[in-house]
Amino acid sequence: MLLIFQQQGEMGMTVTENTDAGLRNHLLAALPRKEFARIESDLEPVSFALGDVLYESGDKLTHVYFPTTAIISLLYIMQSGATAEIGIAGNNGLVGIALFMGGETTSNRAVVQSAGAAVRMKGGAVKTAFALGGVFQNVLLRYTQSLMTQISQTAVCNRLHSVEQQLCRWLLINHDQLQTDKLVMTHDLIANMLGVRREGVSIAAGPLQGHGLIKYVRGTITILDRPGLEAAVCECYQVVVDEYDRLLGEYVPRNR
Amino acid sequence: MLLIFQQQGEMGMTVTENTDAGLRNHLLAALPRKEFARIESDLEPVSFALGDVLYESGDKLTHVYFPTTAIISLLYIMQSGATAEIGIAGNNGLVGIALFMGGETTSNRAVVQSAGAAVRMKGGAVKTAFALGGVFQNVLLRYTQSLMTQISQTAVCNRLHSVEQQLCRWLLINHDQLQTDKLVMTHDLIANMLGVRREGVSIAAGPLQGHGLIKYVRGTITILDRPGLEAAVCECYQVVVDEYDRLLGEYVPRNR
DNA sequence: CTTAATATGTACGTTTTCGCACGTATAAGA
DNA sequence: TCTTATACGTGCGAAAACGTACATATTAAG
To answer: What is the pLDDT of residues A138-151, one digit of tens each?
Structure first.
C-alpha cells in the first residue's frame, strides 16, 4: 500500500487546443446556450495521465476541473499513509468544489484514476460565474449535494458492507464514467481506494471472476456481466445513482 | 437495534416565543447586524425532545433549523433497518442544507440526539436570503463544506479505525456542542449512531471508564477527562475541528 | 532470450467485530 | 413493596478482515 501516486505533480498534464470538449462534460452541457457562451472562453482543455495529482490535501485550488473522459478520485490520506476514497468524479461531475463553496482548499487529494481529458476553468472565473446565480450556480450546488450523498453512502457502506459488495460498487461507479468495459486498474490500486488490503481485493475479485461477472489479467479488469454486478452490489450503489438523477436528471443524460 | 426514533414525527416539538435565541446559534450570530436584521422576523424558536424527527429521508424540507441547545444527528437508515450516523449539527451548525443547495430533500433522517432548542426559518425565506449572496450565503456554503469534511472523515474513520476510537470521537463531537459534561445517551443509541452492536459500545466504553476518562450509569455518560479523551481519539476528530475553524473561524467562536 | 519488475494467488495465525444468549443492575409504575 | 421494563455486563463461537510471508504468473527491459 502506501503513498500511491504521491507527488507526481501535474507532470503528465498537457494543455491542448481549445475546442468544444467542454460539452462532453455533462454539467457543462447542461448549461443554457447563453450561460455556456459566457464561460466558454474560460474553458481550457487539459489531459491527464493515470496518477496525475490535480491537487494535494491543503493546496489552494487554482481551477475547477470538468472531466470529459478522465476519472478523478478524491482520496483521503491518513497520517499513517493509509488511504481511502471518499468520492469519484467523471464526465458527470466536477472537481474543485472548495473554490465556489468558499473554502479554497479541501483536506483530500484529487488524483487521476483513469487517464483522459477534462476542461478546466480558473478559480476567479468560476467565482464570477457562480455569483451570477442562474443555472450555473444551480448545477454546481446540486452537484455538490449529489457528491455529499456519494460521500455519505461511502461512509455507510464502509461501516456496514463487505469488501466484495464494495468492490462491486466501485466497479459499477467507474464503469458508469467510462466509454469502455475495460478498467485499467490493479488490485493494489483498488485496495488503496477501498481502504483495504491488496489481498482483500484479490479475494473479493476471485468469486466475481468465477461467476463470470468480470475478468481480469494483470492490471486490466473487464466488465463482462453488468446486470450480474448490479445484482451483487449493495443498495448503496443505486441510492447514489438515483439521487444524482433526482438532483441533476433534469439537466443531464444518464450514462448507462 | 433497529428503527430507533422511528416515526415519532414532531410530536415533542413546541413553538415558543420569538426571542433573540437565534443569536445563540453561532452561524446566525456570525451575520453582520444588517443581514441579521433582514432575516430576524423569519426566525422562529422551537424546542425539541430527544428522538424528535425533523425530517425523514425523502421528505420535502420545509425549514432550515439552526440549533441553539439541541443536537441533531443525521442518520442513514438501510433497507435492513441498520443505521449509521453521517453527521451532527449543534449550535455551530444547521440542518436542512438541501433547501438552499437545490435538492429540497436528502436521503437521511434528521433526529434529535440531545433535547433542546433551535430556531427555524422557512424554506422560502432561506432561499430568498441565500440568493442575495452576502455573508449569509457565504456562511451557509462554508458550513456545507465543513459538513462535507465531517462526512468524509466519518467515511474514513469507519473504514480504518476501531470502535473505541470512534466512540471517543463521537463523545468529543457531542461534548463540543453541549454546555454540560453529561450526555443523556444509552449505549444502545450510541450503537445506532456508530453503526455497531450495543455490546460493541459497552466493550469500548468499559476501558474508557476504567481509565477514568468517562463515567456512565444507566443512560447518562459523564465526560471526566476531556484531555484524556483527546489523547485516545484518532486524528479524525481534530481534522474536522480544524477544518471547521479554518472555514468558519473568522466568524464563529470555538466552543471549547 | 534472459532478467527484473510487477501483478496476482495462497496460506496461516491474529485481531476485531459480529450474532446470540443470558445474567445482573437500576429505575419506574402499580 | 413488588413487578416490570430498561440498561448494561459477559461469555461464547463464527465470520470478516488483517499482517505477514512466500509462490507463481505475466509483462517490460536489457
So the answer is: 999 999 999 999 99
